[in-house]
Amino acid sequence: MSDVDSIIERIGGAAAVASLTGVGLEAIRKWRQSRAIPAKHWPKLIEASGLGLDAFTPSQPAQEPGMTDPESSVPPGATAALVLADGSVFWGRGFGAHTGPDGEAIGELCFSTGLTGYQETLTDPSFAGQIITFTFPHIGNVGTNEADLEAATIAARGLVVRADVTAPSNWRSTQTLDAWLKRQRIPGIAGVDTRAVTLALREGGPQTAVLAYPADGRFDLAALRARAAAWPGLEGMDLAKEVSCRQSYHWSEARWDFSGAAAPAPRHKVVAVDYGAKRNILRSLVTAGCDVTVVPATATAEDILAHQPDGVFLSNGPGDPAATGAYAVPAIRGVIDSGTPVFGICLGHQLLALALGARTYKLPQGHRGANQPVKDLATGKVEITSQNHGFAVDGDSLPDGVEVSHVSLFDGSNEGLRCTDRRVFSVQYHPEASPGPSDSAHLFDRFVALMDAD
């Protein structure tokens, strides 16, 4: 690899590189310090510099706490490796399911800051195509059970944790995390400096990684690095079809109520479009008084309206909204044109924005965790929210008749919209996840109120 400093100077200096790649000067300082440029920026830099790919391929990967030289032998006790696209390698101890010789667990490496709910996180369909780094160290301490699933199977492709998974200590546990992962064929790696991983992603942005946990303990690091560098990333990737239901079904289960109170009788028929819907969203709709029919992500406006709904809900989900929008946007526009009230969450929010004529973009750092502050611009109140998204709506691109309703207090990005002349609104975060614990639960009641207005 050419010297990072020489590449930067060839392009015109740090300011020129920052403008070209959209990163901050602090990130470029980290590039110089680590002697490595994240692979996602190589195409633009190659075009700007006129250099070949070999100039950017690391001959000596970056050395950070928790990393080792990928050309060295396997460290004592290491049975798994996390190999990043920039060539960095984090060694650790594998658990869960073994991978094949090429390391099938490949995806976008991300981090989640939630202190609880690792089982819900792993089964959230919005994590499809991703390997999750948990910043909280005590993962696996309460085991697993069938009640806490957000979907029938794990959506994430692997997990990275700091501490070894211990025996569960919770009366609700029916299976250890390790056994559950084996059953789901999902690998994990423990003993990793998750702070170093988080800092690398915070400074350099999303990066592809391969999690390898071979049964024979043999690692072809050159092949793993090549696979990580070659993976295309989530931009342009439609994953909603992979996690959506295949046919329509009725959902009747309400949110858990330990007082024994029954769910209210349904007052409105709602069609929920499943782009990767979490079960607790469907429960929340039932608890708010909705009779819920779930339809596949590919349902057309005619399919949706054939159920004669009083309202339509657009669910969360994974992948690039622009890619999913190829088939989802025409359907959503048809529903909006019918005058039916619409409520969207997460990917549903992004797809609704696209249908209204706005734009979406990839965030430099995604929002994932249960401690995200969001301001409601109408009331001035701040809600503590749960989030899981790597793309966002460009609030400045919203057309006339559509206004920003919520913003992130972390980075100012868009967290909600509403139409001023139609019964349509959406939020980027997850009101069903109860991080506040009930700061955002009123949004389901707002949806019902729009349907009541008929």
TrEMBL record:
Its EC number is 6.3.5.5. It comes from the Bacteria. Residues 55-75 are annotated as: Disordered. Residues 78-212 form the Carbamoyl-phosphate synthase small subunit N-terminal domain. Pathway: Amino-acid biosynthesis; L-arginine biosynthesis; carbamoyl phosphate from bicarbonate: step 1/1; Pyrimidine metabolism; UMP biosynthesis via de novo pathway; (S)-dihydroorotate from bicarbonate: step 1/3. L-glutamine binds at S126, G317, G319, L347, Q350, N388, G390, F391. Keywords: Amino-acid biosynthesis, Arginine biosynthesis, ATP-binding, Glutamine amidotransferase, Ligase, Nucleotide-binding, Pyrimidine biosynthesis. It catalyses: L-glutamine + H2O = L-glutamate + NH4(+); hydrogencarbonate + L-glutamine + 2 ATP + H2O = carbamoyl phosphate + L-glutamate + 2 ADP + phosphate + 2 H(+). GO terms for molecular function: ATP binding; carbamoyl-phosphate synthase (glutamine-hydrolyzing) activity; DNA binding. It holds the Pfam family CPSase_sm_chain. PROSITE patterns: GATASE_TYPE_1 (PS51273). The active site is at C346 (nucleophile), H430, E432. Residues 1-266 are annotated as: CPSase. It is an enzyme of class 6 (ligase). GO terms for biological process: 'de novo' pyrimidine nucleobase biosynthetic process; 'de novo' UMP biosynthetic process; glutamine metabolic process; L-arginine biosynthetic process. Small subunit of the glutamine-dependent carbamoyl phosphate synthetase (CPSase). CPSase catalyzes the formation of carbamoyl phosphate from the ammonia moiety of glutamine, carbonate, and phosphate donated by ATP, constituting the first step of 2 biosynthetic pathways, one leading to arginine and/or urea and the other to pyrimidine nucleotides. The small subunit (glutamine amidotransferase) binds and cleaves glutamine to supply the large subunit with the substrate ammonia. Belongs to the CarA family. This is Carbamoyl phosphate synthase small chain. It comes from Endobacter medicaginis.
